[in-house]
Amino acid sequence: MRHSRLTLWLLGGFTLLVYAYKILPVFVVVALAFNPPEFGSFPIVGFTTRWFGGLLDNPAVVTAVKTSLRLAVATAAIATVLGVAAAYALVRYPFRGRAAVQLLLTMPILVPHLIVGVGLLLAFRILGLSRSFTLMLLGHVALTMPFVILTTQHRLQAIPLYLEEASRTLGANGWQTFREVTLPLAAPAIVTGFVFAFMSSFDEVTATLFWRPANFDTVPIYVLSELQNSVSQELNALAAALVGFSVGVPVLTMLLLHLWTSRRRRPARAPEATPAWQPATEGDAR
Questions:
Q1: For residues 112 and 143, is the Cβ–Cβ distance under 8 A?
Q2: Is residue 148 part of a domain?
Q3: Mutual angle of helices 133-158 and 98-110, in 10-degree steps
Q4: Structural domain tally of the chain?
Q5: Which residues lie below 8 Å from residue 123, measured CB to CB, with a gap of 6+?
Q6: pLDDT digits (tens, 9 = 90+) for 24-62
């Protein structure tokens, strides 16, 4: 008993050390973003938010944010549509070679993004295509679509097949069954996959370095290029804003999905019935 308790304490302490090693540097950057001196350093001598206001006056930062948002939204939308279709086909339609297709679609998660970036760039050069926004979009879709496939596929496997069969028995065609039965039940997983794809595209930097055209920066690439010169307070503020955005979007999505699913599960309140013994009113008598 003592040996098992000691093992649990050691395992818990080691886990805390790992989390501290990974999270403490993030808190350091966030804390420095609110430090008044022009060059961020410890100790913290005060509190200010003027470095965040300077981000809005920096045209390079504004352009990089717009580019990242446009790329991430387009990537998430395309990856969600293709990923949901692929997941539905893998779950509902057994065919020869399904395991190989599944492995091929989810392989970008296993392969390092450096290899994917170089491989797709070489493939486009063989086809005579140069680096462009379209190349970036296609590459990001290939990298993020496995997240949509895996989350949606797991949810579709939990939906009883007899619900779709009952819908078709009652006269609905395949599209009506998917729209009225399958899609509402799988909506939380689809939204989760969309958020995964959005955040993965927004934070992607390794493969994007091979695909971006000249003078075309996303937020992570802008931060990486600025780090080659110096670490300014505006850069710390931008990093803190990215931390808040990367944490806030998934948390807000989780809360909204929890609220939405709890409302759907809440049974509808039946209207109160009039007791049989209640006497008729004067209007009813007339």
A1: no
A2: yes
A3: 120
A4: 1
A5: none
A6: 888 888 888 888 777 766 677 778 888 888 788 888 888
Cα atoms found within 13 Å of the Cα of residue 172, Cβ hemisphere only: 16
Range of the domain at 238: 14-262
Q: Is the residue at 283 inside a domain?
A: no
Q: Is the dihedral of CA 263, 258, 70, 75 positive or negative?
A: negative
For the stretch 233-253, pLDDT in tens is 788 888 888 888 888 888 888
Which distant-in-sequence residues (6+ apart) come within 8 Å of 221 by Cβ?
Answer: 64, 205, 208, 209, 212
**pLDDT (average), residues 226-238:** 79
Distance CA 37, CA 90 (A): 56
Which CATH number fits the domain that encloses residue 50? Answer: 1.10.3720.10
Provide the CB-side half-sphere exposure for 76 (13 A, CA).
21
